[in-house]
Amino acid sequence: xxxxxxxLRSALKRQIVPVTVFLLSFLIxxxxxxxxxxxxxxxxxxxxxxxxxQGGTRVDYVYPEGMHAIFPWDKFYIYxxxxxxxxxxxxxxxxxxxQVHLYLSIRYAPKYKLLGLLHKKIGPDYPNKVIIxxxxxxxxxxxxxxxxxxxxxxGRAVIIEAINLAIERVAQRYIDVDGVLIKRIxxxxxxxxxIRYKIEQKQMIEAHQFIAEKEKIEADxxxxxxxxxxDQMKIISEAIPKQDILQWLGIRATLELSKSANSKVVVIGxxxxxxxxxxxxxxxxxxxxxxxxxxxxDKPSSPSDTSDTKExxxxxxxxxxxxAVSPSEKTVISEPSGMTPEPRSE
Length: 346
Description:
The chain is an alpha+beta fold. The protein has eight helices and nine strands. The protein is 42% helix and 16% strand.
């Protein structure tokens, strides 16, 4: 037995180089085959295989998440099946030949069950081969029939219909398009400024028309209100004598004032016809003029005043209640009770 191990040891010493080369080659081959045999599908992904000897792309089965083993001579393709987003920019021409720059946002995802067909007929670069060209084609066709102003105003509904048509076309290519958004539309600055100015002027005209209609309605309202006040005053003048209307209005003002909950100071005019807050306003001339048999003063006048001629006050009184006399006349103004009048020379 001991002789056997010695012969084996000596044989290994003679074959050490070939054995080492074999082991290294096996390890390298194992590493290469492991990379081509074992494949990991991460969350949100799916796999498709291509078989070299069994008919090419397998369209009836999609590999789910996890680790999968295939033959080393086959190929394994991994697709992202989540909703993805691309932001292409395209240039289109309007009806009158004006160039419009569109900023788009497209959300899409491949159909999971048809992933094998998508890989076989289109390939991994399907967004640039199918989605963007299809949307661009439809937008060019629709915007080419519109003018630049329509894109800003009434043409958006037509553009949306065109985008829906593009989505239907893309859906026939094993792709689900979640939505196509137009983020921004750029026109040449001069054209965009002219369109904005035109829209502003149109809105201004509509605003002036609205103001004119409003003023007409307000004029009708004031006219109706004036007619109502006129009819009211006509009815009041028939029921109340003219000299008592102001007194009646003063009573109404006092009643309205009494309804207020705030503290207040009420100033009553002098005399029996004084109105609150207004002061002494003559209600009738007879209230301010002395009678014919009443002297202007309770006390007799001085001897120097006996030659003066007393004349009745004129009928017309000013707003301040002063009498109008000639410069040559001399008049004694009656003073309140308890005060001695003093003669005044004019």
